[in-house]
């Protein structure tokens, strides 16, 4: 089912970034806001916890993509019991598996749960964009528009306006859709996304 498009390379890049740098990112944050108070304890405990979470994530992700019921249950358990960026990443993967099966309700739940675990604006943007696509695929244009409105990052605006235009068109608002596609073209976006936006803009302009 073609629910997710265009932003996949960016999503994969975000996931790789956190998989490779998640521990260092959190450690850097704590240094900046907490100084050195309790640093030795935090470093020995929290760093180990995140490293264990990262290792568990990789293992469970491999199980999930075998397509087995056990793998799906293991992924759901990990996402529910983990309270860090890896939980949010697992939610994204669970949602993708559900979309591939045509189970949009499960994808919606996985993304909504993941959003509550997301620790950075960029990760929240990824999840809100994918959630909006799922909501629109379910025919819920208003929910999709609400999710799109929460996206903050400049690098996601072209994809966000693409979905926003689709949602407005679903509601019969051709002028709003045209404005959204135009705004998307004026934002940063991949060549393929710009081509898609141009096609959609031409179609709505000529309809």
TrEMBL record:
SUPFAM superfamilies: TPR-like. Gene3D superfamilies: Tetratricopeptide repeat domain. Keywords: Cell membrane, Chaperone, Membrane, Transmembrane, Transmembrane helix. It is found in: Cell membrane. Its main location: membrane. Pfam families: TPR_21. It is a single-pass type II membrane protein. Belongs to the YfgM family. This is Ancillary SecYEG translocon subunit.
